[in-house]
Design brief:
This protein is α+β, with helices and mostly antiparallel strands and 117 residues long. The chain has two helices and four strands, in the order ββββαα. It is elongated, with a radius of gyration of 33 Å.
Length: 117
């Protein structure tokens, strides 16, 4: 005897007829375009009733990682990032050449005294 298959396999009980389009309510929304400095457009969707001041002026573009703004003709420019500074660069900002020489001389004098030279 052949085993019978389940005719409604893979469907939820009470799901209604297949292909039913009335599942849930779709809220009204607005599309807001953002452009980055390379000309890439990104569209974000917001609820239709949201106040304009709650819609962000800039976002990070998913295409380039650059900031993107709502003005196509004047997109925001990338902020200048400071290069990585070494510890020595920070020390040189705080000390003059003369102060560095004096500190080095004191350290060498102390080292020579400890070693008995």
């Amino acid at each position: 005897m052949a085993t019978g298959g389940n005719a409604i396999r893979g469907t939820r009980v009470g799901a209604g007829p297949m292909g039913e389009q009335d599942h849930g309510y779709h809220a009204d929304r607005i599309a807001v375009s953002y452009w980055d400095a390379l000309g890439n457009e990104t569209v974000r969707y917001f609820a239709a009733g949201i106040p304009d001041e709650e819609i962000p002026e800039t976002i990070d573009s998913p295409h380039s990682g650059l900031p993107a703004g709502r003005d196509k003709d004047n997109p925001p420019q990338m902020a200048k990032t400071e290069p990585y500074k070494t510890h020595l660069a920070y020390v040189k900002e705080r000390r003059t050449e003369e102060e560095a020489d004096a500190l080095l001389e004191d350290a060498l004098k102390s080292l020579r005294e400890r070693r008995g030279l």
